[in-house]
Amino acid sequence: MSARKLLALLVVVWAVSWPVIKLGVSNISPIWFACLRYALATGVLLMVAAARRELQLPNRSDLRLVLVSGLLQMGVYSALTSVALTRLPAGRASVLAFSTPIWVAPLAVWRKQERFTARSAIGVCTGLLGILAIAAPSMLAGRAGLTSYGILLIAAIAWAVSIVFVRGHRFHATPAALAPWQTLVAAAVLFPLAFTIEGRMPSFGGRGGAALLYVAVVGTAFAYWAVVEVGRQLKATTLSVGLLATPSLGLLISALTQGERIGMPLIGGMVLIAVGIQLTTTDRE
Hints:
Blueprint lengths: L2 H23 L4 H22 L8 H25 L5 H8 L2 H11 L7 H24 L3 H23 L7 H24 L7 H28 L2 H7 L2 H14 L5 H19 L3
Helix pairs in contact: 1-4, 1-9, 1-11, 2-3, 2-8, 2-9, 3-7, 3-8, 4-11, 5-6, 5-7, 5-12, 6-12, 10-12
């Protein structure tokens, strides 16, 4: 399969994941769902790494990357988005959660990895206007859902911090070899958190199990492999801009399958966020 076809498949997989996670957290408590997701993904990735003869323990340098990305990109991001999806529609949540590239630009400047150009500044401001447009109805009405928007933004920033850290890291092992240890860290962090906040692991039926299986195996294990493979063959800008289709498709799928209403504030905010992401990502080419 060509890199562009694999990228298209990755977009579909991630877009479908949002309404599926919404279904999952309707049947399984959200932090337990995130924990079990990474526990299952760890098993799959360990088998894949062993089959490819890439299974190895990370050295001290890579261990820092494993801890940061496992904690922030996977653990924090998944736990917060799962919690937000118990209150927000899947499509709306995916738009805000995929605002991550907007936050990468100022963080990269802070870490002295990049200069903050006028194009980046315009991109960040445009993206923030998009976020404000989506959240404005809840802000004006004083709805409790506003807290969920804040949770999603914290999740997006956590992923952005991980991205900036990864960009400054010199890899010793391949990303595929490190993947199972990253998911293991996420599962290990989420387990005591889920037990403390939500109690014992809940029982769940076929719908919850099917959602969990899809998100763990396809939306996590396969998607991680796919994004690494695509990243090796395509420019970073091509990958970033291509992934912009994910929240749009996720919103469409959510509208068709879960009856999510799509109003002008959501459409306008989505467009502004997409433009902001494109401006900030293409400026780094």
